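Posting for a labmate who doesn't have an account.
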Amino acid sequence: MKKRSLHKIQEAVSLLGFGTMRYPMLGEEIDRESLRAMFDLAMEQGVNYYDTAYVYHGGLSECMVGELLVDRYPRESFFLADKMPGWKLPKEATAADMMAIFHEQQQRLHTDYIDFYLIHSLDQEAWQTLLDQGVLDFIRQLREGGQVGHIGFSFHDQPEQLKPILSAVDWDFAQIQMNYYDWQGEQNAEEQYRILTEAGLPVIVMEPIRGGALAELPAEGQKHLAEVGFQSGAEAALRWVASHENVLTVLSGMSSLEQMAENCSLFRDFRPLSAAEAEGIEKALAVLNAHEFLPCTGCRYCCEECPQGIEISKALKARNEYTSFQNKAALDNYQRLVKPGHHPKDCRFCGACARVCPQGINVPEEMVKLADLLQRELG
């Protein structure tokens, strides 16, 4: 497994990291046996970076990491990454409330030490709120207490909003959403990457395949990738990201043993992109940009906040499949599975979903559009 050490991170970190946001499922339950096999294969293949968060799978992501990884492998054989979610704090929270969440995470993970600890999903507003709540005291306590190895943050905002965050703390690393679709998109991942590189911070990449969207391109886009030798859209997306020298690790939210095996193979014999491969990706991107595409990554933060219980990420995925692939069956399959009262037309417009969406999607507006589309196409 290809490993890298960059700047302040002198440990050898696997270029492929396991993002534990999208576990294999059996109905509504996590498929523990499949997940156990995935952890075992990852460890066997040399993956040593495991990223979780307080909110993933309603807290069960951390618990599964504790049960299936920490309890079964020597603690020194892998790195744990976890995150403190500011939006889950009460309005009048303090550093003590943040520390309480951290201790709960330690209990879930069955460990007293977290190697990489992040302040989760920062933008300008979230950072200012956390400053008022004492996040700098919290970070100081973590460092002085020796309960974490490296301090970083994940970021979802415009590049210029990075600068006040960078100036406030002596960070060790940063995590950004980076893929060839977002490189010059609305949040300008290219400029974010440049700023962090110039600041001497290693970059950890989230959403390299954009929640699976770059693995399932329209046929013409997939044709451009195949013409230059890519075996899959996922391969193209992962190798594009990992070809950037200041990327420490690439987080892939794998959901099956097959995905784990494929991705481990890519990073075991990693090759940076050739000029022809890069050109093929540019052509595929042009095809994708020609379609009306909602930038949902399936993180499900919106679903967890929705008082109506609408499966928003599934709804937006069905809409994208319809518009990108002219796949009317995607709408039909979605509508057949929607339970009464949880349809897009049942949206209350409370805005809770939009407030936590890292992509800035106006979810209530999209629910109206989708409800109209379903009515028009399916009756």
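Reply:
Got it, the structure tokens are right above this. The first strand starts at residue 3 and ends at 6.
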